[in-house]
Amino acid sequence: TMPKEPAVLRQNILDTTAAILACGIDPKKCFLFRQSLVPEHTELAWILGCLTNVPRLLRLPQWKMKRASQNNDGTVGLLTYPVLQAADILLYKSTHVPVGEDQVLHLELAQDIAQHFNKKYGEFFPVPKAILSEL
């Protein structure tokens, strides 16, 4: 949600990919892809954003905290990022999502959006459930 230098962003993508592979993810057993190359993520985010009201997004604590750290100049990208997260989850019709405690409210938003979409257009998206790790 913050501007990045293109060269740094490209390197971050490579570093993240290397870290995922170093953790033992086997690309022969799972799909590994660069999300930004899948236009359906942003297309679905646009559709879901048209169904999500601004006051709901303004209540999210992450928006409040990050906006404060940006001298009250939060960006539209920061505000709508949780809708993109919901699109990332719902696009693949995920039923269970591993999340940390700090992301539970964003998953609840994805649940609300899925339920709203299903009520308006018919059953299409499963309502995803959180998988919280026990550390």
TrEMBL record:
Any single Pfam family the record assigns to this protein: tRNA-synt_1b
Any one Gene Ontology molecular-function term assigned to this protein's record: tryptophan-tRNA ligase activity
Entry-linked InterPro entries: aa-tRNA-synth_Ic, Rossmann-like_a/b/a_fold, Trp-tRNA-ligase, Trp-tRNA_synthetase
Enzyme class: ligase
Domain of life where this protein originates: Eukaryota
Keyword terms of this UniProt record: Aminoacyl-tRNA synthetase, ATP-binding, Ligase, Nucleotide-binding, Protein biosynthesis
GO biological process terms held by the UniProt record: mitochondrial tryptophanyl-tRNA aminoacylation
Keyword Protein biosynthesis annotated: yes
Assigned EC number: 6.1.1.2
One GO cellular component term: mitochondrial matrix
Family designation: Belongs to the class-I aminoacyl-tRNA synthetase family.
Protein name from the UniProt record: tryptophan--tRNA ligase
Organism from which the protein derives: Anseranas semipalmata
Gene this protein is translated from: Wars2
